[in-house]
Input
Amino acid sequence: MPNNRCVSCGAELTQDEIGATKKLISRGAEEFYCLPCLARSFKVSESLLREKIEYWRSTGCSLFAPKE
Ligand SMILES: [Zn+2]
Output
């Protein structure tokens, strides 16, 4: 994975955070954000983003790895 750090704060990213950036910003995004930075820029709570990630995962979206 080429860019696996948040471009805003430098935090190491999970696949879910990269997937969430792609969903929220653009499929073609090449810069990714961690959940706290995404939450801040979209003015939502981190827990809402986590719920959305679980929803996207449940739809079988390939951006999110199935839960182990
Ligand atoms: Zn960040």
Remarks:
- The mean pLDDT is 93.
